[in-house]
Amino acid sequence: MARKKIALIGAGMIGGTLAHLAAMRELGDIVLFDIAEGIPQGKALDISQCGPVEGFDAKLAGSNDYADIAGADVIIVTAGVARKPGMSRDDLLGINLKVMKTVGEGIKQHAPDAFVICITNPLDAMVWALREFSGLPHNKVVGMAGVLDSARFATFLAQEFGVSVRDVNAFVLGGHGDTMVPVTSYTTISGIPVDDLVKMGRSSKERIDEIVKRTRGGGGEIVALLKTGSAYYAPATSAIAMAEAYLGDQKRILPCAVYVDGKYGLDGLYVGVPTVIGANGVEEVIEIALDDEAKQNFQVSVDAVKELLEACKQIDGSLA
Ligand code: A3D
């Protein structure tokens, strides 16, 4: 069987980490694409030289030409800029929207059969725009945020309860950012709901509320520490888990930013919900019952995503 091909659009901090992880796990041969000349080539060469030490078989190539992504099975998009001091949210939106346009057109022309995972921020708007510009089916274009957000939630909960991260199953819904909805009633430790553990006196509502708040601000906490960029190890690992679910037809239920039409009261919006990922991409959106508080929070999140989409449509008339 031919080896799979993974194309990484954007060879920055997350792109480089993705390439390293994908090579170590032998997901396939890897193409790093970027508009910056030399960066994707240099990273590809550097990572390929890990091969003899790690013992992985993966060919890596760097490119500035979209033709080189042809035939990719999975594409992970991190191209764009991060928000810098003095830059408004609309400035960022305008810049990354243009990037999504060129990336979407590149994918449409050269790799229309790929499963595409978008990471570029603002996530819920960019994954929508990328789908629009690429014209790929909705089930083949997803956004990575929920896996990362729930990993952050799980990390903090494992610390709080003094248990292994492996036993924590954390549940996060909604858009990526301040309005995300960590749902404690569906968050369990070895099957025991966190809310029950609180009732058993193993933590308090106040402590869990603090953890929820810290999870919502999880990206910002890392930006404040790094000062020159944003998180990249955990975002890359999270996207690789999604790619593996697709490539291995694993039918994993992962929180992803997907196109929701007819569930959660939505008629066609990209937002974070539990999703079955398998060989057909998004195979199912799972609609769970939400309590009143989660429902309200989810609505706030949905409204924030809708506001971003309106701003995108103002900037690029072709999206209206
Ligand atoms: P960075 O290291 O700056 O890499 C971005 C790369 O994109 C750079 O190498 C640029 O040269 C390249 N680039 C810019 N324009 C284009 C273009 N038109 N075509 C191809 N490549 C281009 O950033 P990063 O890797 O740290 O982060 C990438 C993105 O992920 C940013 O938008 C972050 O905000 C976002 N991010 C999202 C999450 C989520 O959970 C959703 C988490 C962390 C970062």
TrEMBL record:
<feature type="binding site">
    <location>
        <position position="83"/>
    </location>
    <ligand>
        <name>substrate</name>
    </ligand>
</feature>
<dbReference type="InterPro" id="IPR022383">
    <property type="entry name" value="Lactate/malate_DH_C"/>
</dbReference>
<comment type="function">
    <text>Catalyzes the reversible oxidation of malate to oxaloacetate.</text>
</comment>
<feature type="domain" description="Lactate/malate dehydrogenase N-terminal">
    <location>
        <begin position="5"/>
        <end position="143"/>
    </location>
</feature>
<feature type="binding site">
    <location>
        <begin position="119"/>
        <end position="121"/>
    </location>
    <ligand>
        <name>NAD(+)</name>
    </ligand>
</feature>
<feature type="binding site">
    <location>
        <position position="34"/>
    </location>
    <ligand>
        <name>NAD(+)</name>
    </ligand>
</feature>
<dbReference type="InterPro" id="IPR001236">
    <property type="entry name" value="Lactate/malate_DH_N"/>
</dbReference>
<dbReference type="InterPro" id="IPR001557">
    <property type="entry name" value="L-lactate/malate_DH"/>
</dbReference>
<feature type="binding site">
    <location>
        <position position="96"/>
    </location>
    <ligand>
        <name>NAD(+)</name>
    </ligand>
</feature>
<dbReference type="InterPro" id="IPR015955">
    <property type="entry name" value="Lactate_DH/Glyco_Ohase_4_C"/>
</dbReference>
<dbReference type="InterPro" id="IPR011275">
    <property type="entry name" value="Malate_DH_type3"/>
</dbReference>
<dbReference type="Pfam" id="PF00056">
    <property type="entry name" value="Ldh_1_N"/>
</dbReference>
<feature type="binding site">
    <location>
        <position position="121"/>
    </location>
    <ligand>
        <name>substrate</name>
    </ligand>
</feature>
<feature type="binding site">
    <location>
        <position position="152"/>
    </location>
    <ligand>
        <name>substrate</name>
    </ligand>
</feature>
<keyword id="KW-0520">NAD</keyword>
<dbReference type="InterPro" id="IPR036291">
    <property type="entry name" value="NAD(P)-bd_dom_sf"/>
</dbReference>
<protein>
    <recommendedName>
        <fullName>Malate dehydrogenase</fullName>
        <ecNumber>1.1.1.37</ecNumber>
    </recommendedName>
</protein>
<feature type="domain" description="Lactate/malate dehydrogenase C-terminal">
    <location>
        <begin position="148"/>
        <end position="311"/>
    </location>
</feature>
<dbReference type="Pfam" id="PF02866">
    <property type="entry name" value="Ldh_1_C"/>
</dbReference>
<keyword id="KW-0816">Tricarboxylic acid cycle</keyword>
<feature type="active site" description="Proton acceptor">
    <location>
        <position position="176"/>
    </location>
</feature>
<feature type="binding site">
    <location>
        <begin position="10"/>
        <end position="15"/>
    </location>
    <ligand>
        <name>NAD(+)</name>
    </ligand>
</feature>
<keyword id="KW-0560">Oxidoreductase</keyword>
<feature type="binding site">
    <location>
        <position position="89"/>
    </location>
    <ligand>
        <name>substrate</name>
    </ligand>
</feature>
<comment type="similarity">
    <text>Belongs to the LDH/MDH superfamily. MDH type 3 family.</text>
</comment>
